[in-house]
Amino acid sequence: MGAYLLKRIGALIPTLLIMSVIVFLIVYLIPGDPARVMLGEGADEDSVRQLRQQMGLNEPLLRQYVDWALSALRGDMGDSYVLRKPVTQAILEYMRPTLSLAVAAEVFALAIALPLGLQAASRRGGWADRLLSAYSLLGMTVPGFLLSLFLVLLFSVKLHWLPVSGYAPLSTGLGNFLKYLILPAVSVGVLMSALIARMVRASVLEVRNQDYVRTARAKGVRETRILYRHMLRNALIPILTVVGGTFGTLVAGAAIVETIFNIPGMGQLLVSSVSHRDYAVVQGIVLVIAGMYVLVNLAVDLLYAAVDPRVKIRG
Amino acid sequence: MGKANERRPGPGDFERVPRNFGEHGRRADSAAAEAAGTASDEYSASDDAERTASDERSASDDAVRTVADEYSASDDAVRTASDERSAGRGGGRKAKTAQPERRADTGARARPGGARGDAAGGRTKLRPGRLAGGLNASFAAGGLLLILALAAVLLKPLIAGYGPQDVDIVGRLAPPGGSHALGTDNLGRDVLSRVLYGAQISLLIGCCTAIASSLLGLVIGLYAAMYRRLDQVLMRFMDAIYAFPAILLAIAIVAALGPSVRNLIFCLSFVFIPAVARIVRSAALVAREQTYVEAAKALGASNTRVIWRHILPAALAALIVQATFIFAEAIIVEAALSFLGAGIPAPTPSLGNLLSEGKQFIYNSWWMTVFPGLALIVLVLAVNLLGDGLRDLLDPQTRTARSGGVSGRLRLGAFGVRRGQRGRERENHARERGITVEKHSSGRV
C-alpha cells in the first residue's frame, strides 16, 4: 500500500506544478501595471510603488514565481488587500458553506442516481430507463445556475415552501440547515446525478452477463440482492471515477450557485474579489479548488484499491 | 488530477480486455500498440478519463437521442445490444468482441475480418436515428431549431418592434402580452427584443470560441501526435488546464483581462483548447500508424505534408463534432460569467445579464427570468442536437468519436464533467494490455 500511495502522490507533482504556474500567471494577464489597476485610476504614485513592492512585482518573473509557490506551499497565499487579512484565512472562513453545499449536492446526486441507474439497468426500455433519459436530457441542457433560478421561482416565489436565499450553519439545527441548502444542492446535484446514473446503468449492464451473476441467480439469490450485492459492487469502480472526476466541477458549480442563494461561500468571495480586483484572493480560490480536485482524485485512486484489491497489486 | 491514477479501470475492463484479446489480440496492431504505447504512461490518467468520458458520453447520447428514438442508437445500446444478441445466440464471445471494436475508433478504420459480421449486424440495429433519406433526426431537429433561432435573431427588429435599449419608465415591469409580447423589464425595456439581442451575442461568442479553439487545438493536437517530445510538453499543459474547472479558470482570466466581448472570446477559447487538442491528438495518433501514412512517408513526403495532407483529414470529423459541443458550452459559460458579473459589461443585453437582472425582480416579474432562461436552453439544445447528429453523419462507424463531445459539454455545461476523449488510445491501450495482462486484469500493470 505504501508504494502504491507514493506512486500516486508522485504522479501529482507535475500537474500541480503546471497548475500553479497557470494560476500564478493570471496576474500577468492584467493589461498594464497590476498594482495600478488594483488601486484604481486615482491612486497616487507612492501607494502604487508600495503595492508593487509588496506584490514583489519588481523582482524577476522566475524569482516571483518561486517565492509565490514556496509560500503557497506553506499555506501563505498573500494578503487580501480588500479584506485586510491573509488569503488563506479568508478562504478557510468561506470554505465551509461551499463544501457543505458540494457534499449535500453529491449526496443528493447519489441518492437519485444509484436507485435510478440500477432500476434502469434492470429493465432496459422500462419506465426507469425512460425516466433516466429524460432526466439526463434535463441535466445536460439546463445549466445549474439556470436551474436554481427556476427552482427558486417555483418553490420559493410561487409555492412559498422554501426560503428564497440565505444560509444557516449546521449549528442552527439540521432541519434549518437543510431548508436553506436543499434548493442549491438540487441545482448543483441534478447534472451530477444524471451523469452518475448513466454511469451506474452502463456499468451494471456491463457486468450483468457475468458468470457469477448467473451463478448467483442459479443459487436462487433474490434479484434485488443480486443487483445490489453482486452487480453494484463490481460496477463500483467506474462509478467512483465519475464521482471523483466531477468533484472539482461540483465545487465550482457550488461556488456559482451559491451566489444566487446568497450563501457566504467561496463563490461569493470569488465574485466579490473579481469586482474588487483582489487578485490574490482570486488566485487563491482557483488554486484551492483545483487542488481539491486533485486531492479528491487521489482519494478516489486509493478507494479503488479498497473496492478492488487487484488494483493495488498491479498499481 | 487524473494523473494520480495510472489508469482507472473502466467499466469494460474486466470484460473487454480479455475478450478483445481473444479475437483481435493480434490486431493490437502496430497502430494500436503504438498509439497506446506512447500514451500509456504519461497519459494513462486521461485515458481513464476517456473511458469515463465515453460512458458519460454514451449516457448523454442516450439522453439526447432518446427523444428521437429510444436507446437503440446509443453506445450503451450498442454494447447491450450485442450483449443481448450474444446471450440469445449463445455466441457470446464472438458478438462481444465486436462491441469493443466498435468503441475503439481504430476498430472502425481497420476492423479485422472476424468482427466485421457482428459489427455490421449490430449496425442495422443501431441506425434508427437516421431517417429514410439518410437524414439524421437529431441533426434535423437541431438544425431546424438553430435556423429558427438564427432567423429570429436576424429579424429581431421586425419581431420585437422595440429596440433593446428603448426605455419606457411608465410601462416598466409590464407582464407578457399587450404591446410587449414578453413583457418589459425594470426600466420598461422590451424583454423580447433584449432576449433576441442576447441570443445574438451568445451565438456570436459561441461561434467565435468554437472556431478559435478548434484551430489552435487542431495545430497542437496534430503536432503533439507527430512529435514525441512536443507531445510530452504540450499535453502536460493541456492536462493542467483541463484540471481546472473551466468556469473558474474563465472567471479568473476575465477578471484579469477585464470584461469585454473580445476578452471573453479569448479566454473561452483558451479554456477549451485542451478539449480539442486531445481529440485531435488521439485521432492523429491512430491515423499516423495507418498504411497510407507510411506510404506517404516512404514516398518522401515531409512531416508537414504528412500532417496536413494525410493526418488532418482523419481527425477532421471528430474535430467538427467537438467544435459544436464547444459552441454549446461556450454559450453556457458566457451566460454564467455574465450572470456573475464577470462577463459582458452590463448594459449590453446578453442572456447572462438578463438573467442576473431578472434575479433581482424574481419576486414580481417572473418573465424577466423565464424567457432569457428558455432562450438559453433552446440555443444549447439546438447546438447539442446538431452536434449529435453531425457526429453520426460524419462518422457513422466510429461512435466513440463522440465521447469527448458531450463529456466536454457536461463539465461546463452545467458544471458537469469535461473529460478528454481519447477513446481510441484508451481502447488500444486496453487491448495492448490485454496481451500482457492476464484475464480479469483491471488494466493495471
Count the E strands of chain A. 2
Mean pLDDT of chain B: 65
Low-confidence stretches of chain A: none
* Unreliable segments of 5+ consecutive residues of chain B: 1-133, 398-445
Structural class of chain B: mainly alpha
Q: H/E element string of chain A?
A: HHHHEEHHHHHHHHHHH
Strand content of chain B: under 5%
Instruction: Determine Rg of chain B (CA atoms, Å).
Output: 24 Å
Question: Largest sheet of chain A, if any?
Answer: 2 strands, antiparallel
Q: Spell the H/E element sequence of chain B.
A: HHHHHHHHHHHHHHHHHH
Strand content of chain A: under 5%
Assign a percent range to the helix content of chain A.
Answer: over 70%
Topology:
The complex is a heterodimer of chains A (315) and B (445).
Chain A: H1 2-25, H2 34-39, H3 45-55, H4 61-73, E1 79-80, E2 85-86, H5 87-122, H6 127-141, H7 144-158, H8 174-207, H9 211-219, H10 223-234, H11 236-245, H12 247-260, H13 266-276, H14 279-307, H15 309-314
Antiparallel strand pairs in A: 1-2
Helix pairs in contact in A: 1-14, 5-6, 5-8, 5-12, 5-14, 6-8, 7-8, 7-12, 8-10, 8-11, 8-12, 9-10, 11-14, 12-13, 12-14, 13-14
Chain B: H1 13-24, H2 30-69, H3 75-89, H4 92-103, H5 105-109, H6 113-126, H7 137-154, H8 156-160, H9 191-226, H10 228-243, H11 246-257, H12 261-287, H13 291-298, H14 303-339, H15 351-360, H16 367-394, H17 403-413, H18 423-436
Helix pairs in contact in B: 1-4, 1-18, 2-10, 2-12, 2-17, 2-18, 3-4, 3-6, 4-6, 7-9, 7-16, 9-10, 9-12, 9-14, 9-15, 9-16, 10-12, 11-12, 12-14, 13-14, 14-15, 14-16, 14-17, 15-16
